[in-house]
User: What shape does this take?
Amino acid sequence: QLSGCTMQVGAVNKVLTCADTWADVEHLIDEYVGDLYFLAGVERSAEKNRSADEDINKKNYIYFDFDLRKNNIKQTDEEIKQFAQDLVENQLKDSPWRYIVFTGNGIHVYFFSEEPITVYNKAYWKLGMMKKCEALNKLTGVEVDKSCVNVSRIARVPGSFNHKSDPPKAVEILFFKDQYADMLQQLEAIG
Assistant: This one.
């Protein structure tokens, strides 16, 4: 799924492994106890330490974080999943999203391109992501977490657990659409 993009998998500030495919990291989902994150597009020379923006050279995905419990702590899992269903059936019906993932506190909406693009300018990347966040806010009427716009933003691994709650909540893919987007090229074009 992340072809051409080396991936780090680990905790927030600790790299457990680097891999080129999901098959190479599936064992961690069962073995690791704690919050598990991934980041793809990492330069091989930086794979031992948690990557920063300057370590990312390619991307073939972006995601938008609807952190729904941030403003409504009492929102149930079912209400969050219903929000995702509404997005799929209404606001994002014609949008080229690929995955919608329940994260335990909200949802991530992922867009993938078939081939990775080279990220030349991290500041322009952030600018492009901010513009996409604003467009998504307008489209959905719900605020997207604008702190999730840097190129080295980590995301939760589907199949793992979010340990911010007791009991931990499963991170799960709710919807999949076999579609690719040109959104990454649009972000690149802004720079």
